[in-house]
Fold these 3 entries.
Entry 1:
Amino acid sequence: MLRRLALIPALVAAPAWAEDPPILVTATRDAGDGVQVAQVRSLDEVRSSAASGRIEDVLANVAGLQQFRRSDSRSANPTAQGITLRSLGGNASSRTVVLLDGVPMADPFFGSVPLSALVPERLGRIEVTRGGGAGPFEAGAVAGTLELTSASRDEAGLLSASAFVDDRGSSELSASLAPRLGGGHAVLSARWDRGPGFWTTPAAQRVPASVRARYDSWSTALRAVAPLAPDAELQFRALVYEDHRTLRFAGADSSMSGQDASVRLLLRGDWQVDALAYVQARDFSNVVISAITFRKALDQYATPATGLGTKLELRPPLGAGHDLRFGLDWRHGSGETMEEAFNASTGALIARRRAGGSQGNLGLFLRHEFAAGPVTLGAGARADRWSQSPGRFTDVVTACGTLGSLAERSGWDGSLRGSARVRLGSGVTVRGAAYSAMRLPTLNELYRSFIVNAVATCPNASLANEQLRGFEGGVDWAPSRNFSLGVTAFDNRVNKAIANVTIGNNLRERRNVDAVRARGIEAQATGWIGQFHLRGSLAWTDAEMVGSGLSATLDGKRPAQTPRLAASLKLGWNPAPDWQFALMLRHTGAQFEDDLESDALPAATTISAYAEVPLAKGFALVLRGENLTDEQVVTRNQSGSIDLGTPRTVWAGVRVSLP
């Protein structure tokens, strides 16, 4: 059957992440390549890990998984919400593929992920894979894959609703309804977050134009599952969202919106089939306010983008010990940026710009795993035919120069993954993997310029594809269901890595550097002692850029926005059914703002808490606390101009649920 492996124990995961004994998690796919299945979180774990109620708070518990900046989706520019792993950053694009129910979630133009629309309570499972991938939609997985699975009807319950308010007057409202419909079900959910926000500007740097980071976002989702036959199922999913934010100065408003829909057919006969098709419509706008005159300098008033894709995956019956799957996937994205530039002193319009293009990718993939006794061997391969349509630039007069039309490009790239896993007994497993992968530059990197404070970053339509080569090895020890420990050592190199490279005073350009190399150690542990449980995760990475020629000044420097050390620790207590208490500690090491290591972001350690106490059947009081020690978290530092992250925030609310 399609889901013939429920949950691979921690001893076969890389890195391992054992589930708590009371929780049974059903896999969305076979474990397949045992070294791919990584940190897995269930619905209960997702909820009790999010002191902010936001998905990026949950993901922060996976050491080494980061956005470009330390800000969350209340105070970050949406285009900076790229997801990466293993310190392979350097710009805001995602080097980790993010899938929701098998559908890529990255914006077709920017490559960023709409985190505010990915609501934790809608999810039943989160699975994080590190390293290059060779499976469906994994063109672009040079740092890993993040798979989100929607909550099932049993996990969602018939009715669920919650309401929260924080100590600054922000509010969070959510609700879901999941009726059974014949042999299937539907889950309809909605969420609305709004608030006056907090000061991202330190008190000493505020001016009359400074404002709090206001935010107002909503999203609605529908997921329906209908059985067509005893071994056939049709799934439908739709997501609609909007998000509005104000950052640093009055008038510095950004917004994003999206409308996504997908249809998926699953056949579970002798020949198993997974067929998927999706469509996405996205838009983004952003106003840049001059940090000198506090007048509008740039109005990126629209960035419409469209994404289309499909996948067909087949699994023939090969008998016990064999898991073979093969198929194809296709993606197409198009979009353009529309903007007007103004003289920040006089307010006069000085330039209009429209720039954009389209790109496509057709991938053929195959993966086979063979298990014989304690030994499991796996191999996977992808062949990707990619293309970029002629880019277009209209009426461009900016610091980035005058640009014209660009030629079409296309080519083939291959990705490979091989793995081995050996169970030695006494709960000890050794494992290893080697892999390659590729990532196309995003339309944003190719065609759109942007300004942060006084620093302009130019696009580069000549960017080449990134190419990953890497390997890893590790040991897992799980002597009982109540304890697991996993350690992984890795060496990853991304050739032709795309970075924001300084080329002049307050001027940068996206360029391919020779490589970004990251070597490090990842460790995680899980333990249960009676009613208490402990989870820890640590990533230490030595990352450096390799540069020559135009990027020679970057040689040996650490990529921007990448800490050397990241760690998280969670202590939980479940004194009775439906009672939950958790304390979370997170540490992010020092990192640099820019490619030249001229501006540093200090290390930061935060403590958060979560408590859920049942008051009556189906009714609970929930308290949440973010950054309880009010640690100053610097999220941006450009020549001393600083932005700050979330200060101490306390939430109180109620949750109602009916099974």
Entry 2:
Amino acid sequence: MTKTQHHRACHLCEAICGLTIETQADEKGHVGIISIKGDPLDTFSRGHICPKAVALQDIQNDPDRLRQPMLRSGSEWHPISWQEAFDTVAARLWDIQQRHGQDAVAIYQGNPSVHNYGLMTHGGYFLGLLKTRNRYSATSVDQLPHHLSSFLMYGHGLLLPIPDIDHTDFMLILGGNPLASNGSIMTVPDVEKRLKAIQRRGGRVVVVDPRRTETAAMADQHLFIRPGGDAALLLGMLNTLFSEGLGRATHLPVDGLEQVRAAIAGFTAQAMSARCGVPAADIRQLARDLAAADKAVCYGRMGVSTQAFGTLCHWLVQLINLVTGNLDRVGGALCTTPAVDLVASTGGGHFNAWQSRVSGLPEYGGELPVSALAEEMLTEGQGQVRALITVAGNPVLSTPNGRQLEQALDGLEFMLSIDLYINETTRYADLILPSTSALENDHYDTTFNLFAVRNVSRFNRAILPKPEGALHDWEIFVGLAQAFAARSGKELKATVPPAHIIERGLRAGPWGDKNAVGLSLATLAEHPHGIDLGPLQPNLASRLKTPGQRIQAAPAVLLDDLQRFAAQPPAEAGELLMVGRRHVRSNNSWMHNYHRLVKGKPRHQLLMHPDDLAGRGLEDGQRVRVTSRVGSIEVEVLGSVEMMPGVVSLPHGFGHARHGVHLEIARAQPGASANDLTDERVLDCVSGNAALNGVPVQVAATV
């Protein structure tokens, strides 16, 4: 028996925690995992580890995980060879596009696509050959408003200022629960210690959320807010900053601030209070406290993005940081200087260059909002989607109106899924192609280093050998591309493995050949615990991608959206609004198939304030029916003073008891899918991002 200790980072979530993994090889050379622990020498995570990382062992050993291509025949699945799979895909997709046009094939890429560098570097090698405009991803049920606001203001959707959490004196968090999410558009392992460090140095943490979350519970102040009311709160704050002369000069080149001042003149704290449910005095005091702090930052996340005014909210967050002098300032909001710089190496992108066929929703960066996917399949006519490719995604559970999407998937001519499981979505596929597991492949995090609270870099070598007959995800894309090119007669450019692409990016990046660090894969190999490249520094002025390299504070599309906001009807008396919630053990639907993540107290229930329970004659622990415009579910309800009255909370990712799902542990879990209630018609009209929070629902006892 041979034991070996390895060091690498977990890439299942945004914290990218460093790990110490011990393996053991038996007499036959088979390698197994003995333990997974946090790496105390990791330069970024400092020994922190979350349950997702420990679950890497469960994923590796999961008997439900697919390990070879699987072809569906009726309700049965059987294995086929890789080449047969590639040829089948090429033939079916080419035939469909020949008969119905290029846009008859749609693509959906799930959240894990940015957690695996093979998907990042080689996804387009095959998918780009299809030349379809029907491209979708999890971005539009998550952070699309972040990207669009940065694109409009700074010229690039990845130029995202990050809270300088380690140096701030005042952190205002709206719609975020970093203790459960490990940051999210703020790569920050060990976030609880970092937030407590703000308090220890005499600073303050303030959370605004319809639920008293884990982060709100440890904050210095928590304010309840009506779901969807964040734009009103932020407008009231920005109005106060202007009207009371609380702004601070900025070194950044800016156009349009006076236009903003004039446009929001009527959105006073007093007027906005009724819209958000936060007292006017508290709105004004938040603005004053943020302006008075030596170093402060306003940060909005998931709850702010996934609402009807998500892009407006993120624009206002950026403006508040700008007006208080905290944008591009130590202790405020700073952009990273990543080792592989996707901002410098890619163009700024485009917005609304085309629209979806049925509802006319705008594209951003070549993708349409996923809320339009089902209707593009179900609505007949020229351009109707007839085939779908899903990559590491489960949109039935993670996008609005999952039952409608199921209906659409059931009517497709062909569906391909690149996935490890037969889940709620992939059960409709004709063919599933599974890649190697996370511990069987290398990884370099190009995305979440871009959002990190420090400039860091590391390369993660595979811990376990690639099984015989298995393919890495990038090899799957290469095989598909070769088969499709041969079938269609298209020219296929040569490619190289992902590590070679990363090597080029490192050498061309700001820490590469032209820098004293001389960062390369060889350099990273000498630093198994990662390399700390230092704290974030002001750099936004030099990185702007706008014409003239000036911040555009008043994009016309956002000034116009103020009129939509002003015209929004008031909330109906007595209505209940549903929001989601996150838990560190169940952020995503894939986490429910592992014993160590589902053990403990159940986390599937609907949370409701005791007064709302009593007003409907309901009791704590009772089974209830929750109904929205699109459907209804049955679930257990729990009374909770954590909830704002008039608001209920249901977590994402449950609802596994669907026919044909091959997830033994997940299927045994109770709970229903929140996205059987969310409405594909309720969107942020600017971006098309789904409004998953603030969904009107009715709750009543089951019959």
Entry 3:
Amino acid sequence: MISLPHQRYQLGQCVINCYDMTITAQNNTVSLPAKVFEFLKLLIQHPAQTVTKEQAIEQVWQGNIEVGKRGTGNAIWQLRKSFSELGEQPEDYFKTVNKVGYQLLISPTPITSATIKSQQKSDHKKPAFIALTVLFISCLAFFINQKATELTAPPTRINVAPERITNFEGVEERPAISPDGRLMAFQWRKEGAKGHLYIKDLQDESAPLRQISMSHDTEAVPSWSPDGQSLAYLRTTSDNQCFVHVRDLISNQDKQLDSGCVSKGYLHSLEWSPEGSTLAYSKAVDDRSVIHLYHFNSNEVQALTSPAPGEHDLMMTWSADASQLAVMRSQENMIAKILLYSLSDDSETTIISDETLVIGLDWEHSSNQLYFTALREADFVIQQYNVESQALTSFHQDETISSITISETSNSLYYARHISQEHITHRSLIDGSIIRQLISSSRDLYGQYLPATDELLFLSNRSGDWELWLKQQSDNIMLTDNIGMVTIPAPSPVSSLYVAPIRTKGLEYNELYLGDTQNNSLAKIEPVKGNVRYASFSTDGNNIYYSSFVDGDWGLYNYNLATNKVELLLKQNIKYAIEDDNNGLYYTLDNVSGIYYWNRQTNQHDKVNDSLRAKDWGSFFYQNNTLYFLERSDENDLIRALDSQGIVTTAFKLPAMSIRNERSLASGKDDSLIVSMQGINDADIYRIPLQ
């Protein structure tokens, strides 16, 4: 046992209690396993020093090398997760020294009886008028709240404490409850492994987990048949091919039904119809994602919905009589709408529009209500929509809610809650070492470096909306304020200019804006038309390349800053493009893996890379006559380099899935890059009653 001279310590905003192995912050308390707490005590003994893995193995695990190697990794993971659950930023407390050990960054302060008496004495001296002030403020707040309630929508119901259903190391996601309410199928992705499907008995805690898929592929999105004897699910191979499968749980026989499906993030993009005759799922079709139906009686596949180019129908849920589907349709900028699709007359009716982060959706049949996730003032909220009365109310609030599912039998809603500490790092291209951690916040995304000013552009929703921020040496400055939905910016390589597609309030499409960090100006580029997706600067900073939907077609365009002229370069569905030193363009296509190159001198197009996933469409950049791109394996996220001779090498590697999806790599300076990281990635499944 590691001994400390005191029983309680103040560590930042947290109190460490050695009596019962707990950590407390803001009236919330978490308990730690014995070995994890012993590891924390070891760090407390050596603040601001590197505690090596060998030290930890010797003192915490009594020299048991094999157990200790796994134990140290699990202990730091458990500490980071616990501090996150308390609302703290783990990066402020712990640092991993690569291949060496760990550091406690904050010096602990012992809490003694003298400290408590001093605090009590100070408390007694507080002026009495403070109590009166608090009473006055409370009354005023109550009055204001009452008035606001009279003028606004129905209030959010009082949050109930959710019941944790899973608590494994890794990500437990996409729950699906059997028709009788007894079993829960879900995806569990352990650290460094692919996601597989498991079944948990919700009524017998002693029953072991049943793993129902053991292939070498990623398996996700389980959906029960109405008789509870089969599971439909999506299987994604290492080359990013997606297939629809059904597994008979009695005979364990597995059958492939279709290919070309879409499985993005943790969206529930597959659902069995209530009467059992049909599967609904999302498939990639050119530049869009379309809901398809598989009919079991005829083995036929039918395209159902009709999204416009660049729109993606990614989630669906059936009505009780299977006559309607509620469908989540989104564009690239995280704005989504929910529509009701009638199978009898092929009509679409939009019932919810302009929502942010709709990443969970299900239909409660008994009361005919839809539940879906949304973002409200930087908080994740489950919304409740009454299909008959069209009333929309807030149902439940929690941190980073993703997929949701409803059990009619138990009258409960299940959801996955994530702990994911996004942050942006400035790293060496030589070995991946961190030069500096530029941002440390739970929702700061997609850093872009301005070499001319040594500043960083990034997105953040810390204010409640997705806004554009500027990171300087010591300050963070908001560049946009309540203008609308801002998407990933692009910095000039030679000046303080930047561009960003922005969907201003009241519009249903993005316009391209040009900003200047030196004078904090931001204005729409008037000649640019259409629905703009993503943009980049030419290497000399004189031109802006962007993808836009104009007159019914996607195209790649060029805007010249000097002449104020727009030119259509390619009339095809190019998602994102960057220029090289030879005036050629590297680009990616919607729903297609890999990177293409357009030699503008010869007008030849070649596919130069197959390994960039479609989900990572923007994670590549050009620097020092080399194309750098993200390649993922089961074990690692690799930063790969393609030189002018066509030779591919590995610059460095990070643990698997530690880099975010989409556009998470950006050019730095002096053999460096900017990486948008996921940090901790853990999710557990919770349950709350519907009433």
